Amino acid sequence: MTKDERYIGVKKLIESGHITEFKQIFTYLPKTVMAQDLGTNNNRMTKLIERTEMFTLEELNRIGDLIDISFDSVNSLASNQYKRSKYFKRK
After folding, report:
1. Residue 39 lies in a domain
2. CA–CA separation, 35 vs 91, rounded Å?
3. What is the C-alpha end-to-end distance of the chain, expressed in Å?
4. Shortest CA distance to 34 belongs to which of 15, 60, 53?
């Protein structure tokens, strides 16, 4: 299976700092593409985009493989978004 070329563009945008939250990826890559590549359905992908704390570590790792970035980078995108969400409990 050939990987969608838009992953390369997303990787460059992440590395250059233009993408700082997970949901920003989907300005450049359709969520249906990533959902299919992860083997999940579109409804679950939509929920994960909005609620990044619901990702499993395995899913974050697989996303890193798809984009060709480190697990830490993907985790950072998800974490940044979560910290700015209404679901984050500030202490």
Report:
1. yes
2. 34
3. 45
4. 60
